[in-house]
C-alpha cells in the first residue's frame, strides 16, 4: 500500500522495486554496514532519481526510506538539505544518471571480492563463464579518494564510457541497467565472477584460459538475455525469494 502522499503510481512502483533490490543485495551479502548505494530513475520524472536514506540497513529498507534527489545531487523538496543521504553516493549516482540516461538503475557496492579484484593489476580476466558476460566491456577507474569533486566525477564518467559495468580500483563495483532487474542481474553476475576469480587465484595453480572466440560468443549470448526475457526471469526469481517480506518493504 502507498503510504506516502502526493506521489505518482510510477514513483511508488519504483520505490517498491528499489527497496526490494536493497533487500536482495543484503540476501546475497553485498552490503557494507550503512555504506554503498543504489539508485533508480522514476518513469515520467526526468532529472530526479531515488537513492537509499543514509543509515538504513539494506535488509530493513522500505519504499518510504528512499530519498528523491535531483541531478544536482541535492534532495528534492527539502530546500537543498542533504542530511538524509550519503553525499558522495548521491554525487556518483547523479553524475552517472545525468551522463547516461540509458542507465535507469545504478548500483555501487564495496564487497570484499569486488575490491580484491579491483586492486589486481590484471583486473577480471575471462576465466569463468560469469566473467565472460563482461568480456571486453568491463571498464576500470583509478582510485581518486571519495568521488566528491566535479573533476573526479567527470573522470569517473570518462572511465565508464558507454559500458554498463566498471571496477573502481581499490574501491568496489559500479553497474547499471535499463531496469532495476537488469542492474540486479549485472551486479549478481559481476560479484559472482569476482568471487570465482579470488578463489581461482587462491589456488596458486596454472589456469586454463578460454579461447577468445568462445569468450566473445559467450558475451554475445549474455547480451541477448534482456531481449529474450531471461533478465526479467532472474529478477522475478529474486523477488520470489523475498516475497514474504513485500508487506514490509513496500510501505
Q: What is the number of E strands?
A: 7
Treating each run of at least 4 consecutive H or I residues as one helix, how many helices?
9
Secondary structural class: alpha+beta
How is the largest sheet built, in terms of strand order? 3-2-1-4-7-6-5
What does this structure look like?
The protein is α+β, with helices and mostly antiparallel strands and 251 residues long. Helix content is 42%, strand content 13%. Strands 3-2-1-4-7-6-5 form a seven-stranded mixed β-sheet, with helices on both faces. A hairpin with a 3-residue loop joins strand 6 and strand 7. Helix 2 crosses helix 5 (150-160). The longest helix is centred in the C-terminal third of the chain and has 23 residues, at 180-202. The N and C termini lie close together (6 Å).
Helix and strand layout, with pairings?
Blueprint lengths: L8 H19 L9 E5 L6 E5 L13 E5 L16 H13 L5 E5 L2 H8 L9 H4 L6 E3 L8 H11 L4 E4 L3 E6 L2 H23 L9 H12 L6 H12 L4 H4 L2
Parallel strand pairs: 5-6
Antiparallel strand pairs: 1-2, 1-4, 2-3, 4-7, 6-7
Task: Summarize it.
By secondary structure, the protein is an alpha+beta fold. The protein is 42% helix and 13% strand.
Question: What attributes characterize this protein structure?
Answer:
globular; 9 helices; 251 residues; single chain; alpha+beta
